[in-house]
Amino acid sequence: MAETVAMASGMDSGLRDLWYMPALAKSLARGAMRREMLLGEPVVLGRLKTGELFALRDICPHRGVPLSAGKIKADGSVECPYHGWRFRKDGVCSLIPALTGHEPLEAEKIRVRAYPVREQDGLIWVYMAAKPGEAPKSEPPRVGTDAPMRWRETQTFRCGIDHAVIGLMDPVHAAFVHDHWWWKRTPRLKEKHYAPLPTGFVMTRHKPSKPAYSILGDVTTEITFELPSTRFEILEGRLLGKPFKLVGLTVCTPRDADNTDIIQVFYWPAWLNFLYPVFWAVGRTFIADDRKIVELQREGLRFNPNLMLIQDSDQPAIWYHRVKKAWAESVENGTVFVNPVQERVLRWKS
Ligand code: FES
Ligand SMILES: [Fe+2]
């Protein structure tokens, strides 16, 4: 079965009513703010002196100047650099300095869009509601370990979110794209069991076949994918008789139609710190390989060709498109989302 799909090289308007992860918590100091593009929208993401986060549309409703170019004031508001209008973290305008106090205008009636924001597991999540001002219908995913974040890497891919996501879940590109002597091995038949998750699917727990994993002793892994672009790899095992859990999280954060950040973080307990050199040697290289193939792919995509998704090796990508479509329809029509993924074994050679 070959499926031809319309893969928007653009972003349509992006999937809504979901959490996106634009930044790591550490990257935003108290009293700092900056512009973060999300789904083509400018968002000013900032942290008050109290440590609280805020996320507002980065366009002053008065005359369009980016609020991110202004100041965070002692009262916890953001001051626009043009005429000094101030906005609270809930988006309400708290001060218009030019008013004398005798005008009929109430500043509080003016608002800038505020986005729900969460900080957890060392990550910052921003909720992109379908309707501005609507409360989140879910909470962002949890990493599910007490271990601190040990590794982080961000690279910008010059593509829309779809190609970033399906590149990430593609099980057969490794032999060609990550063609390093220390990673290479002869292709073998793979057989993996998949099951649906609330907004995605999981390659259920199994023993990884890559010899590279043997550094972790007796280990099993589970790889999940959920909307909009969240991939967890959860390794569990026993090394020298001691049980451990190592969690990797990769997200594709759509900045705009042509730029997607790949943000990868890993969590592991202190006694696994001997892994650092491995990550230093391998982590960046792997993401850079994927980034370069996407650059190359642009050379073809600019002619807007029809593309193919074929057989089991492309089934995760087919599921991604189906789940995404079902989600978009459920948001659009206000209906309950039904996951179209069915439990299945997929077979391919890699
Ligand atoms: S443009 Fe922001 S206060 Fe005038
Ligand atoms: Fe890859």
Task: Show the helix and strand layout.
Layout: E1 2-5, E2 18-24, E3 33-38, E4 41-47, E5 53-57, E6 71-72, E7 78-79, E8 86-87, E9 93-95, E10 117-120, E11 123-128, E12 149-157, H1 161-169, H2 174-177, E13 189-197, E14 200-206, E15 218-226, E16 230-239, E17 242-256, E18 259-267, H3 276-301, E19 307-310, H4 315-333, E20 344-349
Overview of the structural elements:
There is one protein chain. The chain is of the alpha+beta class and 350 residues long. The protein folds into two domains: 18-128, Rieske Iron-sulfur Protein (3-layer Sandwich), CATH 2.102.10.10; 149-349, Naphthalene 1,2-dioxygenase Alpha Subunit, Chain A, domain 1 (Alpha-Beta Complex). 17% of the residues lie in helices and 36% in strands. The protein has helices at 161-169, 174-177, 276-301, 315-333; strands at 2-5, 18-24, 33-38, 41-47, 53-57, 71-72, 78-79, 86-87, 93-95, 117-120, 123-128, 149-157, 189-197, 200-206, 218-226, 230-239, 242-256, 259-267, 307-310, 344-349. The strands form five sheets. Strands 12-18-17-16-15-14-13-20 form an eight-stranded antiparallel β-sheet. It has a four-stranded antiparallel β-sheet with strand order 6-7-8-9, with no helix packed on it. Helix 1 packs across helix 4. The chain is globular, with a radius of gyration of 22 Å. The mean pLDDT is 94. Bound molecules: FE2/S2 (inorganic) cluster and fe (ii) ion. FE2/S2 (inorganic) cluster (FES) binds next to loops.
